[in-house]
Structures are given as C-alpha cells and as structure tokens.
Amino acid sequence: MTDLQFLTWTRGPGLDLAVAVFLLGVLWRLIEIYTLGRKKDLAAPRHAPGASGLHTVFRRSLPPPGMLKRSPVSYIGGYVFHIGLAIIVFLGAPHVLLIKNLVGVSWPTLPSQFIGLTAVVTMAAMVLMLADRINKPVKRFLSTFEDWFTWAVTFLPVLTGWMATQHLLLPYTQMLALHILSAEILLVVLPFSKLFHGFTLFGSRWYNGRVNAHKGVPV
Amino acid sequence: MSASLEKGIHALKEVIDAPIASYFESCVHCGLCAEACLFHTETGDPKYTPIHKVEPLRRVYEREYTLLGRLKKMIGLSKPVTDAELDEWQELVYDSCTLCGRCSLVCPVGNDIVYMVRKLREGMAVSGHAPAGIRSATKNTVESGGPMGLKWPAVANVLRKAEESTGLRIPVDQEGAEYMVLLSSMEIVNYPEYIDALAKIFHKAGISFTLSSEAYEATNAGIQIGSSDLAKVIVSRIVDAAEKLKVKNVLSPECGHAYMAIRWEGPNLVGRPFKFNVVHVLELLDDLRLKGVLTMRDKLKDPLILHDPCQIVRRGGVLQAPEPLIRQVAENYIPIADKQKLNWCCGGGGGASAIHTEAAEALRATAFRIKKRQIEEAGVGTMVTFCANCRITIEEGFDHYEMNTKLLGLTELLAAHLEA
C-alpha cells in the first residue's frame, strides 16, 4: 500500500467505519445507561434557590470553594487541555471542512498558526496531567490500563496533526494519514471507554443536582 | 458462590439505576473526591479515595449491565466479586465512610458518590459484610426499639425526671397534638437536658406536643447498615404512631441520621408520602425565632464556632436555620471557612461511631484532626453543634487529643438563655 492509498483509505472507508461505530456506539451506550431509570422520590420536596439539575450541570464546571488550591494541576491542566481540544476540533479549518463535508454545516475558523500554538499548549497540558497521574499517589492508585490507553488515544491525534502541519519527521501525506487514522481510533474507542464522560457528565451532574435539589441543597 | 454472597450480588443488581450507571461511566479517575474526604486528607492513604470505595458495585455494574462487560464475562476476562473482596471492602464502606457526602459536592463530572456508597451497603449488609457494631445496633433497634437497647419504661423515667426539673408537663400519647416529638437514644442516655430544653421551648411558644410510647426512637440503624427491609420496619413504627395520634408534625431530634431516616428516606421506605410533616427541631426553632417567640434573656459571650452535622445540613437541606439561631444566642460566633454545606464531618456518622474495633477507633481519631485544626485555626475554646452522634464523636476526639474545648448542644444552649 502506497502512502496515497493509505491516505485514501483513511479518508474513505476508514472514516465511514469509524464514524459509524462512533454514532452507533454512542447511541447504544446512552440507551444502555439511561433506560435503567430510577425510582420516584416520595419524600415531600423542599425548594431552595439555585438547587436544580440544570444549576448543577453548569455549576460543576467551576471548582467548588477551596478545591482549586487543593489540586491546581487537575483544574488548570484540565481546563487548558479540554478547551484546547475543543478549539482545535471545532475551530481548525480542515476539521470544519470535514464537518461540512459530513453534515453540510460550517462556521468561521481560526488561523492555522493559532491552531498550531493551541496544539502545543494542549499537548503541554496533557503531558503535565500525565506527569500528575504518575506522581500523585491517589491518581496513580486509581489508574488502570484504560487511563494510560485513553490518554494516548487522545494525545496521538493532536501530536500527529501538529506534526503533519509542521512537516516534521514524516512526509506530509504519510503523517496526515496517520493523523486521520489516530482520530478514527479515538472515535471508535470513545463510546466504550472513560472518554464517554464527554456525553454522560451532563446526565451525572443533572442527577446529582436533581436528587439534592429535592432536599433543598444546591450542589 | 455462597448463598449469602449470591443474595448480596442480587441486591447490588437491584440497586443499580440510571444515575449509578451514569456516574460510573463519567468517572475519569481524577481523584478530586479524595481531596473532599477526611479519611483521605488526614491519613494520606489513597485507598480512602471515595470512588474506590464503590469498586465492587462498579464491577457488578460492568459485568451485568454493559455490553463490553457482558462480553468480558462470557469469555472469562472479568472476575466475579467474591466474599473475600467484600470482606476487604468492609473497612472502606463502613469504617472509613460516614456517608457525609462531601465527595458528592466536589466531583467535577457530577458523581453523587455517597448515593453509591449507600446503595453498595445494601449488598454488603445482605451478604453479611457489615461490621458487628452496626449489626448489633440494628438488631437492638428492631427488637427493643432503640440502638442501645433502651425500652419505654427507662424513657418514661427520664421524662419524669425532666418534668421534675422543669416543673412542666410532658404529655405522652396525646391525640391531636401539633408535634409528636422523637428522640434519639444518645440524647435520652447522654444528653437528657435536650428534653428539658424542648419542654421549656414548647411551653413558652404555647405549642401542643406529645411523645409516643410506641415510637420514641428516631435513629434508624437499618439505614446505616444498609438494609432497607429493617429500615422500613423501624421507620414504620414512627409512621404508625404519628398517624394513630393524628399529629400534624413529627419533630426530628437534633440527631442527623435520624433526620435523614425519617425525613428523606422514610417515605421511600414505606412506599408512600407521609400524612404528616417531618420537621427538624432547628427548623421549628428558627420559625419561632422569626415569629419573635425565641427571645433571649442574655447571650453567651465565649467566642465559638459551629459544627454543621452532615446529615442535617449538607445532606438534609437545613441550610439556613443554624447560623441565625447561633447568632441569636451567642455574641461571638465566628464563621469558619468550610461551613454549612461544606463543613467537614466529625468522623463518626453513618454508623461509624458504632464500630468499636481498635482499628476503626484509631482511624476515627486520626480523621478527627480536621476538626481539631478548625478549632485551633479559629482560636476558640467552644464549639456548638446539633447532633447527638456528632457530640459523642467530638467528645471522644477531645478526650483523645486532651483538648479542653467546650462542646455545647444548640437547642440546650438556646433553652438555657431563653427569656422566661
């Protein structure tokens, strides 16, 4: 298989397969989780301002009082790499073009130099988070194969994408094909790993907010 | 697989619902919950990370309810939860978890971890992996009425003494009273002055009240051990008595877990909403304060801090009453940084104070360092709280560290300074 054939495969059948697994996987997992349902709370509710499922969905995006000081790397590193990933995926020109080809909608993009810089900052934050996972006793203790694996699966598309645009190490065609392949692996892994938190965290925050709002506690 | 383990696993399968599934799927192993748990912050041991405490529940969830887990189970890649494992987890689910719920407040993906621990206890209890101390407290409550084995004649005796010391009548089994008063054994035995305080306040406010000779104990060890069946038996006693006496309200004592049991778990245990209101004593007192009935003769001058019991405040929702009440009676109340719903547990809730093994007691003493620090940082010699179980635990902590800090109960403090 030549470089071009490889690239053609990743952009054609490879992409179709990855997107299909991703979409069906997400749908299956959401059904699997949320059709389990829950019992109605029969205790008379207490109402309090700021206490609801929706409040908690938003409130949990910020560190609760005192927590930033206790774990600065988790919060700052976490913000930087999540926001970085979102900027790259949703505001990088080639990605918006891909989305346009897939679903037909598009929006303005950011200059490639800015995206490149964002990629470097994102990777730095991810490396910092990895170091923290190795260093901090609690994180190391909790970590399983999945934690290291999903880190790599998330890191590789950023690295290969950045290297392709910077023309580093491998010829552009080859690196681009590797980049697309790594993104496809990410799509396939996402619904079946902890990366699925990107979908379930809204439900989790809502349930927590709702259950505690019933008792009049904004959480 | 032993019959009891099978029952335990079955119980765990039963309790897994959409929130629990969503929580497990959302966890990214960030470890932030450890920073909210006093058993971790004070020992530094990673095994006390809250989400790790529910690992057996996660395993059952994965094997029984997820596509990948079922596949892994089929080809033998995932191991079933064993008796040995649950035995190992007993310390994590009971000794080192007071169901304080602070972890549920900080998880960035929103996991309500204490909700999961409470559900895991259902499986632990059925499979015979609950600690002996909580088991005997539960047995006592079911058989004799209270966790300490206290029976009505002894309670009636304490009530008579309260009548003598206050000169006020304390009605028993009186139909149609506005409030049916519940107590906790700890109050009856260790803090009978709570009963005097209530009698004074009710008489001053002109509110009718009664005790029931059939249901006087509010604590529910069935919930702490994690057995909904036993918890239902215990709570039904109160519901039956309140409905028989046709009271408008049932007054929960200061005791935090008692309040949680009757106010929030109660209707769900009996399977229907109550025909009466459940009111925490502080809610009643704050209401009386707002009506101008709770006027003070004088105020306490000592600088003091407040310990907000988890089950009443963070988990129970009585958020606004404690501070105005303490300000009503104390001139030098000092608000601390982690107060109200962010307060740190005393270390003895959730049944933990009933576990008397050497290891559990040593762990509680270590966890207590956080309260010690709060007191020292505020530079006060007095702490006020409103939960009999917190009081026992805190007094044990004071003894252990040879602190000469004074500990006061809020209701009694208010009664002591009440204008005649």
Task: Briefly characterize the structure.
Chain A is an all-alpha fold and 219 residues long.
Supply Rg of chain A: 20 Å
Second CATH tier, the architecture of the largest domain in chain B = 3-Layer(aba) Sandwich
- Major sheet attributes of chain B: 4 strands, parallel
Which range best describes the helical content of chain B: under 10%, 10-25%, 25-40%, 40-55%, 55-70% or over 70%? 40-55%
Determine Rg of chain B (CA atoms, Å): 22 Å
The helicity of chain A comes to over 70%
Main interface by residue count: A-B, 58 and 61 residues
**Average pLDDT reading of chain B:** 94
β-strand percent of chain A reads under 5%
Identify the quaternary structure here: heterodimer
From the N-terminal CA to the C-terminal CA of chain B, the straight-line distance is 66 Å
The major sheet of chain A is characterized as: none
Q: Flag low-confidence runs of chain A.
A: none
Number of helices of chain A: 10
Describe the structure.
The complex is a heterodimer of chains A (219) and B (420). Chain A has 219 residues and is mainly α. Chain A has a domain at 70-193. In chain A, 74% of the residues lie in helices and 0% in strands. Chain A is built from ten helices and no strands. The longest helix of chain A has 32 residues, at 3-34. The radius of gyration of chain A is 20 Å and the shape is globular. The termini of chain A are far apart. In chain A, 31% of the residues are buried. The model of chain A has no long low-confidence stretch (mean pLDDT 97). Chain B has 420 residues and is mainly alpha-helical. Chain B folds into three domains: 3-130, Fumarate Reductase Iron-sulfur Protein, Chain B, domain 2; 133-288, Rossmann fold, CATH 3.40.50; 296-416, Rossmann fold, CATH 3.40.50. Helix content of chain B is 53%, strand content 6%. Chain B is built from 22 helices and seven strands. Chain B has helices spanning 3-15, 18-26, 38-43, 50-53, 55-65, 67-74, 83-95, 103-106, 113-126, 132-144, 152-166, 185-190, 193-205, 221-225, 228-244, 256-270, 281-290, 322-329, 358-367, 369-378, 388-400, 410-416, and strands spanning 179-181, 209-210, 249-252, 277-280, 304-307, 382-385, 406-409. Chain B has a four-stranded parallel sheet. A three-stranded parallel sheet of chain B has the order 5-6-7, sandwiched between helices. Chain B starts with a helix and ends with a helix. The model of chain B has no long low-confidence stretch (mean pLDDT 94). The chains are: A mainly alpha (219), B mainly alpha (420). At the A-B interface, helix 1, helix 7 and helix 10 of A face helix 2, helix 8 and helix 16 of B.
